[in-house]
Design goal:
By secondary structure, the protein is α+β, with helices and mostly antiparallel strands. 34% of the residues lie in helices and 27% in strands.
Length: 494
């Protein structure tokens, strides 16, 4: 099997699906087509010529540049550009490598189906089958690091025939590079919000075990999100909203109504923006990096509001009329020449709020500016700070040290480990009937042969007769059957 992913048409993070155009090529040898006689029509000296015979050579195989036809009167070398028509077997009665897509959504659109008998050899007819699909797949997106995330998109395929009829071996692990966009700002064959990683798409054929019923292979596509949209439409906007809270500190702490109006207006604007951001993301049982940033904006505004309440509560006193009646128009307090303020505060509050705004607003501004200018560096620093906090918490035994505190910029190896990939990937081997590299399979037949070779080493070395080998195999099967019965009896006794 060989796969070429040509284009990523769409990635829908709300529905957690992606749509792709890809080509599947299957190559196999059918012994029943060893002596197939093909009728070939071709041009010869500007005229139409015909011949019938066995195709023993094909361009691209074993260094051939022409079709080699074994006719009754000898061999003919026909250039591929002169071949007009070449008859094919009746494929409805031949072997069909049936398969299905495990995580497909809806009905895939089959753009092309082409089955060709390439040539014939002593092993049989060498057949190639080419499928071209436009299909939509479901994939659970890992959005913890959004919008600085990397996604591993998987297309899962499974054989619809038993293992003794159909097994897969990859011709090459490369499954396409997804390049070829015409625009300079979007050179990848992917949606503009995403870019294809330098790591190419991978074909992963699962190793087979005796317990397996069907052969499987996956196609892994590596993509990275372009965070510019979220950086300027979310981070920058919320940064301006939170920094606007400094306007409230231009008012005196005694002006409680004015400060409250500024804080509540900005808080309501942030709440409205939170609802907008939630429409861009699917429902997840965890917080994304974008969610954490929005929540930190709420916490920042909450700290400012809490500081104002603390100052007014402890270091300010309300101005009251001595008779507690503001409706009579008679004021008996200390402010005789002007209207009294709502509160009267201590003198050192100005210094307290000066240092408070510097210690809170300055780090917030530095974090946001670094996130806008160099987001990857900012996330690395944030990851190290969280690791330090995690170590402190573990030392103080305030947490169980089971949760991961890393943020963003996961390596592909970490993503593979998270998805438990490549644990059962095939191992390359050089022999292949088509002259290309294939991968070693651990099939049921190979496993049975290995068991037989370990159980009968003396007979094989001694070169015994076939009857003795058959007798030894029967004894080995009986011995294994007895051991299974004995294990069942022991399990029942336990």
């Amino acid at each position: 099997v060989r796969v070429n992913v040509m284009e990523l048409v769409k990635i829908d993070q709300i529905q957690e699906t992606f749509k792709a155009v890809f080509v599947l090529n299957f190559y196999y040898v059918d012994p029943r087509l060893r002596d197939f006689q093909a009728d070939v029509k071709f041009r010869q000296d500007g005229k139409l010529a015909e011949c019938s015979g066995r195709i023993v050579g094909c361009p691209g195989y074993d260094g051939q540049t022409c079709y080699v036809i074994q006719c009754t009167d000898g061999f003919r070398d026909i250039p591929p550009c002169d071949v007009l028509q070449m008859s094919q077997p009746d494929w409805s009665t031949q072997f069909d490598p049936s398969f299905s897509m495990m995580n497909v959504v809806g009905m895939p659109e089959q753009i092309l189906l082409q089955r060709t008998l390439e040539y014939c050899s002593s092993e049989g007819g060498h057949v190639s089958v080419k499928y071209k699909y436009l299909a939509e797949f479901s994939e659970r997106l890992e959005l913890q690091d959004m919008p600085f995330d990397r996604q591993l998109l998987r297309m899962k395929f499974v054989a619809e025939l038993p293992l003794f009829h159909l097994q897969f071996a990859p011709l090459m692990t490369d499954a396409g590079h997804l390049k070829g966009g015409k625009r300079e700002d979007a050179p990848d064959a992917a949606p503009v919000e995403w870019k294809v990683s330098d790591k190419r798409a991978i074909l992963q054929v699962m190793s087979l075990e005796p317990k397996d019923l069907r052969a499987r292979f996956d196609v892994l596509i590596h993509v990275e999100r372009k965070p510019a949209f979220y950086v300027w439409n979310t981070f920058f906007t919320l940064f301006l909203l939170t920094m606007s809270s400094m306007i409230a500190y231009l008012m005196k702490p005694a002006e409680v109504e004015g400060r409250a109006a500024v804080f509540l207006t900005l808080l309501l604007a942030t709440v409205g923006y939170k609802f907008i951001v939630s429409t861009w993301m699917p429902i997840k049982p965890y917080l994304t990096f974008l969610d954490k940033y929005v929540i930190s904006s709420f916490l920042f505004q909450g700290v400012s509001i809490a500081e104002t309440i603390f100052v007014v509560w402890f270091w300010c006193r309300p101005i009251r009329d001595h008779d507690q009646n503001w409706q009579d128009g008679i004021y008996n307090g200390t402010y005789k020449l002007r209207s009294p303020p709502s509160h009267e505060c201590s003198d050192f509050i100005d210094n307290v709020e000066f240092w408070f705004t510097k210690s809170v607003f300055a780090p917030w501004a530095i974090i946001n500016i670094s996130l806008l200018v160099c987001p990857r560096i900012a996330i690395r620093l944030g990851r190290r700070c969280l690791r330090l906090c995690r170590c402190v918490c573990c030392i103080a035994q305030l947490c169980k040290c089971k949760s991961r505190c890393d943020i963003g910029l996961q390596t592909w190896e970490e993503i593979y480990e998270q998805h438990k990939l490549f644990a059962a990937m095939e191992v390359p081997e050089s022999n292949h009937p088509y002259g290309v590299r294939t991968l070693e399979r651990t099939s049921l037949e190979q496993a049975s042969l290995e068991r037989a070779s370990t159980e009968l080493p003396d007979l094989l070395r001694a070169g015994r007769t076939s009857e003795q080998l058959d007798e030894a195999r029967v004894k080995s099967k009986k011995k294994s059957h007895d051991s299974i019965q004995q294990r069942a009896i022991n399990r029942t006794q336990q």
